[in-house]
Amino acid sequence: MYLYRTLQIGVMLLAAGTILGGVWANYSWGRFWDWDPKETWALITLLAYLIILHGRIAGWWGGFGLAVGSMFAFQSVLMAWYGVNFVLGKGLHSYGFGAGGFIYAIGFVVFEVVFTVYGIWVYNQGRNAALKPTSTPSV
């Protein structure tokens, strides 16, 4: 329940930030939206979290699925904040060019994916053990 509420608040703030970024772009560059990598990844991040929240409401997954989805959606946040600036190095933003730390970012992504896959495996093992019928002695 806490994760769901936190994601709701986060999505609201992320949407507000994306919209305000468009307003700022209109004021600075004379256009609300251009398919700049920073803007595009902000939209992808917002859509990823909206899909997670929608899936919870639609009943596609419960609490564990929400947690797993939020960990994978965080990868889009990393791409929007770090990947566009330092991996792609393209875009209209003045801070959109840099180098360094790529190996650390990839290492974190690999660690998080492995950790999530391990968590899914442990969850499924416990679930299968709980569903396994126990044998009762026949009389």
- CA(first)-CA(last) distance: 46 Å
Low-pLDDT windows of residues: none
Helix-residue proportion = over 70%
Beta-strand fraction estimate: under 5%
Shape: elongated
Q: Supply Rg.
A: 20 Å
Structural class: mainly alpha
**Overall mean pLDDT:** 86
Count up the helices: 4
Q: How many domains, as an integer?
A: 1
Order of helix and strand elements from N to C terminus: HHHH
Number of strands: 0
Largest sheet: none
Please characterize this protein's 3D structure.
Helices cover 76% and strands 0% of the residues. The chain has one domain (2-127). With 139 residues, the chain is mostly helical. The protein contains four helices and no strands. The chain is elongated. It has helices spanning 2-29, 37-58, 63-88, 102-131.
Name its key features.
mainly alpha, 139 residues, 76% helix
Set out the fold topology.
Blueprint: H1 2-29, H2 37-58, H3 63-88, H4 102-131
Helix pairs in contact: 1-2, 2-3, 3-4
Question: Brief overview, please?
Answer:
The protein has 139 residues and is an all-alpha fold.
